[in-house]
Specification:
SH3 type barrels, six-stranded antiparallel beta barrel, globular
């Protein structure tokens, strides 16, 4: 980044650009608002740049084309070493321990709002911005993280680990917009990626088969699949690391008969538990089996954005991203863990995933489900 790019002084902002339409429109809007804007493309993964599933090269081409249309400078920074140490190593440890981590949460806290923020501020920028669907505001000298206007795209769940020092200099330019409005703005401005498909799945896995990817890094041991509460063996698994609670697909036990529903059809099997010591995978039949429902949970590794939530106060929470807000009470909260009780049982509460607590539109923070 040149000194010219930061000529705006207190109005200088570095926008994290991924090649997608959201971060592109974030940069576009800031430029229109009079900010001195520089785009920054983060290279976070380089183990298989030549792999057919790696989109980094095309993404960089898209970012460069967008920056040219908007009329802003572009910088490329390689954070892959930090990513591997801070995000991917934790991802592997969690899977090896039998949990199901959320790498997007880790990436935001450790890379996008840590390494990226430090880099931008060291270069003289006053703010950073991203294309996340979220909002923030200042109340009494403290920053609050808010849900996006577009509830279907809201990404505050992935940002709950941000602290005051990370939130204060961060702008979310598209948080007040709906996705359709973002695409319309991009098309009207002539951005070449206005119709680009949204990326899905884990960032470093991309569209590749997950099992094949994970097997390159972690050893797996085949074992028995048993019915929970019984010694009956109904199949074989290829490794516990490939399975998560509530999983239905990929069990390969569809032909095993058991409980039938009201129509006489045999109900589907779901993963209900994993015994890491004995290398056993336990399954149950039926989406609403009691073993898949939890009225309470414990969370550790807590992170609160403003203050610790009150106990015996009605909040709402999510135990996974694509989930409706669920009314709950924080029964107990300490320095290291909290206990949450839900008004209605929650389905497939999964160790390693994040519990995120809200008070209306305000994201309070959360922790890792234990």
């Amino acid at each position: 980044m040149t000194s010219d790019a930061l000529a705006g002084g207190g109005r200088s902002v570095v926008v994290g650009m991924s090649g997608g339409v959201d971060s592109s429109v974030a940069a576009l809007l800031l430029k229109r608002q009079g900010w001195s804007v520089t785009g920054l493309f983060m290279k976070n993964w380089e183990d298989d740049d030549d792999d057919e599933y790696c989109s980094t090269r095309q993404d960089l081409i898209d970012v460069a084309a967008v920056c040219d249309v908007i009329g802003i400078e572009l910088e490329v920074v390689n954070f892959s070493a930090a990513y591997k140490e801070r995000v991917f190593a934790t991802f592997l440890r969690e899977y090896q321990a039998g949990r199901t981590p959320n790498p997007d949460v880790l990436c935001n806290a450790e890379i996008k709002f840590s390494a990226f923020l430090e880099h931008a501020l060291a270069l003289g920028a006053s703010r950073i911005a991203t294309g996340h669907y979220a909002q923030s505001r200042e109340v009494g000298g403290r920053c609050e993280l808010l849900k996006a206007e577009d509830g279907n795209k809201d990404q505050s769940y992935f940002l709950y680990r941000l602290n005051q020092a990370q939130l204060a200099p961060t702008l979310f330019p598209i948080g007040h917009l709906y996705k359709r409005e973002v695409r319309k703005l991009a098309e009207e401005a002539g951005l070449p990626n206005f119709a680009k498909k949204d990326s899905t799945g884990i960032c470093f896995v991309g569209e590749r088969p997950f099992r094949a990817f994970l097997s390159r890094y972690l050893p797996s041991t085949p074992g028995e699949i048993r019915i929970l509460g019984s010694d009956r063996v109904v199949g074989q698994h290829e490794g516990l690391i490939y399975h998560t609670l509530g999983q239905r697909q990929g069990l390969r036990i569809g032909g095993v008969k058991g409980k039938a529903d009201a129509n006489g059809d045999h109900e589907a099997w779901y993963v209900a538990a994993k015994d890491m010591e004995r290398n056993l995978l336990y399954v149950v039949q039926g989406h609403d089996h009691p073993a898949l429902l939890s009225e309470r949970l414990s969370a550790a590794d807590l992170s609160w954005i403003n203050a610790v939530p009150h106990t015996h106060w009605v909040y709402c929470a999510k135990t996974r991203y694509r989930q409706a807000d669920a009314p709950c009470e924080v029964e107990r909260v300490g320095a290291d863990a909290c206990e949450v009780v839900f008004a209605q049982p929650q389905w497939a509460v999964t160790p390693g995933q994040s519990l995120v607590i809200y008070e209306s539109r305000v994201c309070l923070g959360g922790g890792i489900i234990a």
